[in-house]
Amino acid sequence: MKDQQLTSLLNQMTLEEKIAQLQQLAANFYEGAEEGGQITGPMASMGITDHMIENSGSVLGLSGAEQVIAVQEAHLRKNRLGIPLLMMADIVHGFKTIFPVPLAIGCSWDMERAELSAEIAAKEAAVSGVHVTFAPMADLVRDPRWGRVMESTGEDPYLNGRFARAFVRGFQGNELTGDVSRVAACVKHFAAYGLSEGGRDYNTVDLSERQLREYYLPAYRAALDEGAEMVMTSFNTIDGIPISGNVKLLRQLLREEWGFDGVLISDWGAVKELIPHGVAEDEAEAALKAIKASVDIEMMTECYVHQLPALVADGQVDESIIDEAVLRILKLKQRLGLFENPLRGADIEKEREVIFCDAHRTAARELAVKSCVLLKNDQVLPLATEQRIALIGPFANNGDILGPWSWLGSTEEASRLAPALEARAAAGKVTVAEGSGIESLTEEQWLEAKAVALEADVIVLALGEHSEMSGEAGSRSDIRLPEAQRELLARMKTLGKPIVVVLFNGRPLDLSGVIENADAILEAWFPGSEGGAAITSLLYGDENPSGRLTMSFPVSVGQIPVYYNHFNTGRPLHAPGADKRYVSQYLDIPNEPFLPFGFGLSYTTFSYSEPILSGVIMTKDQPIKVTVTVTNTGNVHGEEVVQLYIRDISGEVVRPMKELKDFVKISLSPGESKEVSFTLTEEQLRYYHSDLNFSSDPGQFKLFVGPNSQEVKERDFRLALEYVEYKRH
């Protein structure tokens, strides 16, 4: 269908039909769904009529080729103008084949595998009838109390932007209309949702516009520059205005300044939540504010369908605003090819072949291997095949390793640690005991675990959070392991055996009670469908850990937020000649995180030469080439993430102590050296000034190269440049 045909279609629609296109309803409302017509509880009170359902624009949370086909065909029989439905769902880190959670994928620093994970998720979702996924999440996160940190790729805006682009490419491919194995991507949550006060979900956000532009907007912009078709509003306020009614952020910045003309959707219930937020007196005012802010689709509340007709009738809303929103929705349906092929990729026969196939599981296992981070190793790992292993802990044989948003993943079919270890070790060398529950420890469990441990050469403790402890609405004030598990570990320590801890979790943890009692720690996160197999290959050294943290681990919750790219103070801790007390510090813990951004160990070691610069003066037209030689100084093959940071010594506003500007992941055999080169340009030194102009300042800079944000080699250079203003972006 061509653009003029879409305009003609729009002109044939009644006002009520147009407004119904702006309504997104759950699958329960639709004939053909398994529970179609089962409208109970809060949904029954929405007052949604059959006419509204027949003319609605999109469905939330429906999948499975048979159901999607049935719902779409039933809808088209009833819809007067034959406008197909959009099928949308949360396909965040896999459909049926579940990949590691996004925070773990971030720790791979591997854009190709990240893109492949999204491509496979799209392929499985598309053949099951899904058209749009609510991913990627590009929120910058600095507070691990917030459960949704698992859905981000970390605390760095540059790295998050790289991953956001990779995920969008994977979901959408190069030609969304013709490639029915892809789905449209919806970047979320716009904007700054990751800064929720106190790490509490749905909470207030307060920051300056300069900081918003500098740190929190770049990853969303990267996703849109890569072509993401949709944007989802966040639940929070910014500058006292909830996002779903925020004209400045949505209509002025996103639409007018950035030129985004795709579909903007609210998060679940967010339009009606303008009322409890305190910026709308009733549903009519909520609908008025959201449509004026240019929210096109209202998800799972009914303000638009009930209130917009009257708002148009009395002149508060111009019908042209509704026409713009409807046309954006129709254009997305056009780009997905739904007018010509309303069933798109839904295919019952092909679904059986594609979903959870061996090739997809292999890709999930490979990415899980790359995502695990070795946090500690006192010469305990890798394990030897002939060692007697006591596998103990609530995750020893637990399928709850998929993580939040593993909507259709199967915990029963997940690769668990116990059978994977038993298959890899010599016969009879692995003995399993539960040891404790996730949040409980009985004497019976302890005695069984003790007996097993005493017969072993090495104890492997599988510990962590259950999946409901993180994700949406999974905020926690105490981010230590549950007390029962810390007690189990402390008791195991008294047995005098080497202890390896494998952690399953969705956030950086306070490792108090773990780090001092474990000889080795492997951070596995929620590793997905192939987690057990991936972890086993790392524990036995079949694979060498290569993951690097993209979110700092705190010494304790009292440090939070703690992140590498922080500002200095007028009284920094390590200032020469500073008074030992009257500096910016805690009296009881260090300022620095326990484990910094970029950190991760390997079974080998790497050395770095001093960085060599092509010159010490940079100009707008003359970049600086940075070269460093990295050598594998150990005995096994390994991968290293070589990281480049800068610091602007004197800015118009204060600048971070370090900023990641580039990285390269290299592979080295024992004794092998590689020369790694980066090109640093004036453009990479630009930032938002107090007047919101985006420009660089002449002056002194520091450059850092190393394996993480703390262990770096340092050089100085200068930017020789007249002050030049650049257009905002």
TrEMBL record:
Belongs to the glycosyl hydrolase 3 family. It comes from the Bacteria. One of its GO terms (molecular function) is hydrolase activity, acting on glycosyl bonds. The lineage of its organism: Bacteria, Bacillati, Bacillota, Bacilli, Bacillales. Keywords: Glycosidase, Hydrolase, Signal. It catalyses: Hydrolysis of terminal, non-reducing beta-D-glucosyl residues with release of beta-D-glucose. Pfam families: Fn3-like, Glyco_hydro_3, Glyco_hydro_3_C. This is beta-glucosidase. Signal peptide: none annotated. InterPro entries: Cellulose_Degrad_GH3 (IPR051915), Fn3-like (IPR026891), GH (IPR017853), Glyco_hydro_3_AS (IPR019800), Glyco_hydro_3_C (IPR002772), Glyco_hydro_3_C_sf (IPR036881), Glyco_hydro_3_N (IPR001764), Glyco_hydro_3_N_sf (IPR036962). Residues 640-709 form the Fibronectin type III-like domain. Its EC number is 3.2.1.21.
